[in-house]
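Blinded run. Sample ID left blank on purpose so nobody reads anything into the name before looking at the predicted structure. Input follows.
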Amino acid sequence: MCVSAMLFHVSWVPYKRFQRLCLLAALAAYLYCIGPRRNVRLLQGGGVDNTIVRVRCQSFTVATNIFVRFYNYFMQEMKEPKYLKPHIHYSDLYDRGTVEQCRRSEQRWAEDEKTPLKGKKAKEEARIQAVARELFMHFETGNRYVNKDKTVREWMENDRKRDELLESAPAPEGIRCLACRNLVTPSHKQLWFGFDKPDRVLFMYDCPNKCVPSRAFFSDGEEWRIKPDLCPRCNAVLDTKLDDDGKKLLTTSTCPKCKYVNVEEHIWLHKKDEGFDENFAKDRDRFCLSEEDGRKFEQEQYQLEQMGKFMEEFKEKEKARDEKLKANPKGFHLDGAGYTCFICRASTPLGDNWYDQYGIKCLVCQWAIDRKEIPPSLAKDKDSWYSKYDFEHYFNVKTPTLRKWIKEGLIKSRTISHYGQGIHYELFLIKDNKDFLPPKKMIESHSVKEVKDGKTWHQMHPWYHFVDPHKHLKGYKIMEHLRVVPPEEVKARKEEEERKWKEKQARREAR
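Blinded prediction complete.
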């Protein structure tokens, strides 16, 4: 019957290792009961190794006592850490911090946006401000995701070390009561978090005669002593009263002799736990990135870092080129191939380039500059001229229409010959067509935020999506030769192009 009770208690031990150990203890006690003198060797990994239990007993009472001792010993070993908690505790704590930080950021942006923008560019500035806010929140939530795993590991490691310190720190010995001079023993210990010192364990000692005051010592031997607040007038000990309403803490110090009073106010920066937060789950989904979104951000971050390294290398090369240009003011050839001409945008083969104060050009464009076919400033000032691509990009004007305009004399072009023969590149200077072509700043594209499938995207839209083209470019003759295509016609054109493309794909597959 007693053995059954022992095994019943063993079944309540949560860890299998300790179940086996307690079971061995129970069986050992039972074996000792049935024989007057026996030696049993308990072999187990951890705790009491190779321990020979010698018992002389002939009653179940002694066996039960042996079992209880083993049981209490291992239950003490199983005691859960005081500071270290499961991983989910730290993960949730970090997520809550992320939500609070992002909420504060959104609140700051909202307060800044309350200030009305004035002037002609108010709409443009508001659009830029909105994009800046989206980018800021994107990087803030992404950086919180990137730092989460490292931060959680550090928190868990710190709490693990605190548990080890609290468990292993030795209590100072030889401490005596200040009143009766008897040796006192530690009755309680707690971890003391140091700001200017490392963490230590504080041991509280009680006198066997119940003398007061009690004494307390740190694990390094330093005694903890309360320093009373003294009156600055009469040096008497001040009476202190605390009043905390949750928003601020008032500390009132009063002198019992001279009636000196001092009040200190401390405003709490944190808020008390409000309990129910109905928006937390929703905000957690917004601010705490999933593993998939977090990996995408890490990839974006890596690409930005690589781009930053590339820009640093580019700056170093530019610096070296500038130093070389000082020694060769007329210019020089760049080593290697694959450079892009700043004018015709062609890729230069090996040795077929020229670098001077206006940038990189292919030798054909440089030859045209030397022959005064075009001004050298075109390489740097791209806003002073249009290319054929620009006409198609800004106005949807195809090359046949452009040729017609040139033939009719509506627009004047400049040609770069291929070393005096044929046409290498054709462009259109704004100063040659002041009444016809508007400045490029008037037809810049703008970023637009779009939501598709629950995700936010930023796309560039052409200038004519935001203004009335005829009013916006009033006074420029190019609008006399352009037509604003209705949205229905644009949609029909896209459908027609898509239909033709599908037919073409079907014919290819049929072959």
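Unblinding after everyone has recorded impressions. The first helix runs from residue 2 to 11.
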